Amino acid sequence: MLIDSENILKFKMLSVFEKELDQIFGDFNNQMFSYDECIKYINWLISAWEYCRLDLINISNKKNKIQILEHNNLKVSYPSWFETDKGNGCTVTSRSNDIHLSFNYNDDGKIKIDVRGLDYRNHDGKRVPIYVNCKYLKINGDFVFNENILLWHDNPYSYDFNYSKTEHIDLLLNFKTIHDYFPLLKILLTEILDKDDLYNKYEKVKYYISYEKLLIRINDIEMDVHNAIINL
Length: 232
What we know:
- The structure is a single chain.
- The chain contains 5 helices and 10 strands, in the order H-H-E-E-E-E-E-E-E-E-E-E-H-H-H.
- By secondary structure, it is an alpha+beta fold.
- It has 2 domains: 7-46 and 180-230, no CATH class; 52-178, no CATH class.
- Strand 7 (132-139) and strand 8 (142-151) form a beta hairpin.
- The longest helix is centred in the C-terminal third of the chain and has 33 residues, at 198-230.
- 24% of the residues are buried.
């Protein structure tokens, strides 16, 4: 988990995304998979970076089932691997910058919340980081955190608390993805999916990423100079 200035987080997201995109094109160039498979892997990559995931896990009583009362068009699933002798749970995903839902349980107990990126596996089956910048988490109107926190699947933000069966829990998570920070990136990547002049379009994406990383560095230098002048 990284907690730092937003520019550092944006730079990290771009660098990791670029590395995975280079891996796809490098393996395609080495004829490890077909043209159509290359397009498929790029599409997977674009989609994976659009989402944030939140896990709600009951860690006190297997018979204590979560009841989702209301949510803002979220995808909710109940994975079998959450079913244990100690509890159960659900996974919530969204790409709308907010995860907002209310829920309760049919008995008193304890819940664990994990905020993370999607479980993304590349074409080799290896799980690689899909970062999301979570800006704040509120439970029943109170901040659990209120700062930029860069997360991915294997390095989540975890929080647990006790609850009462009479309590309706209201949860609000705000986040930003790489496509929120760099909207032109998705447009350029979508052009690649048109299957025309693949390498030239790939070079355009590479140029754009380099340009945005340079702008981040320039902004950081300007801030350092500004702060230095103020402290004179």
